Amino acid sequence: MSDLLLASTNRGKQREFARLLDGLPGRLLFPQDLGLHDAVPEPHHTYAENATDKAVAFCRASGLPALADDSGLEVAALDWGPGVRTGRFGGDDVEDPVALLLERLQGVEDRRARMICWLALAVPGQGADPGVELFEGAMEGSVATEKRGKGGFGYDPVFVLPSGLTTAQLPEAEKDQVSHRGRAVAAALPRLRELLAPGP
Fold this sequence. Notes:
The chain has 200 residues and is of the alpha/beta class. It contains five helices and seven strands. The protein has helices at residues 11-20, 47-62, 97-104, 172-178, 180-196; strands spanning 3-6, 27-29, 66-75, 81-82, 112-123, 131-143, 159-160. Strand 3 (66-75) and strand 4 (81-82) form a beta hairpin. Helix 4 packs across helix 5.
């Protein structure tokens, strides 16, 4: 096997994973490369289950190993939410969930937060169900009082690292070393290299 399908149509994630997985043997493919556009529901209460569903669905649809992530922001003052609901924080009608987060935390002193990423790697097997392996990464920090920085995507402009910078203020290479997604990918890389290594 020399191709890996990233089970995401999110352009920001695609760019980030392209950097994080650069140098792997074989090709990194995206759903649009194969004409796949199906959205996979994320009904579960854990990142691992949501990531697994996405990886398995795209693995079955493509016949290729598929890597999916489910990630989220957890904020102490919001009872460690929104968590798995981060992508739908405030509901489907909210145009700017980052602005909503800042509004909800206005005047709040405890701004501790963390970003969590779970990766699921689904590999075609002999039976009907692909085999699935899981990898996790986390990043501790806090929520800023205003947006800072132009890099990244999603909540990057308001996620403050212990250094005092938001992840949107970091050069991409530095962000990739410390981010929740970067750490999850680092955990997965040995398995991915083994899986994608060219045969004898």
